[in-house]
Amino acid sequence: DAGVIQSPRHEVTEMGQEVTLRCKPISGHNSLFWYRQTMMRGLELLIYFNNNVPIDDSGMPEDRFSAKMPNASFSTLKIQPSEPRDSAVYFCASSLARGDLKGAEAFFGQGTRLTVV
Amino acid sequence: AQSVTQPDIHITVSEGASLELRCNYSYGATPYLFWYVQSPGQGLQLLLKYFSGDTLVQGIKGFEAEFKRSQSSFNLRKPSVHWSDAAEYSCPEGGSEKLVFGKGTKLTVNP
Hints:
Chain A is mostly beta strands. Helix content of chain A is 0%, strand content 53%. The relative contact order of chain A is 0.33. Chain B has strands spanning 3-5, 10-14, 19-21, 24-26, 33-38, 44-50, 56-58, 64-68, 73-78, 87-90, 105-110. In chain B, the strands form three sheets. Chain B has a five-stranded mixed β-sheet with strand order 2-11-10-5-6, with no helix packed on it. Chains A and B meet through strand 5 and strand 10 of A and strand 6 of B.
């Protein structure tokens, strides 16, 4: 398996523009996570899905952020409109969660480095 | 609520020296603990994990970690560090369906 695939690897956009980040999880995995990494805050969980259903989006910073998972093999994280403070590395991860969903190893993509100017 | 603390933001060691990275967790039930490594420009790779059983866990790349419930700690160790170990290390807790990360520890290795 190719692992978790994220695109694009780098994105530079102007403030106010819409940004869409994409993620293809590992085939067969049933949980998907979006994280944001900054120097100040480290890795923060934004949202996660189980069986394509959003379970917890309490980490989504504001209404400008939205995430979808239309099927088991694809997810998007959208920022509209983007702001300079959104600049960060965004990671997608997937896992195969069983039973009570605890303790499943998460496999991470290589991340998307977003710069908003 | 679950949380993890990595007290050291940045550690520098010499190549060949021993290493210990600290991790403290705050979780009432049995914790599910992991150590991940992130090389520059890369995603996170799992080094090892602990759910139950033997409190000394062996991982990849010569790393090990010891779970100490009395100290709420899960410190990562390596007897002899290599230059390629320079990276960011994170110890998330995963006992509530999702991985909760601390701020990580950046390891620099001097020649």
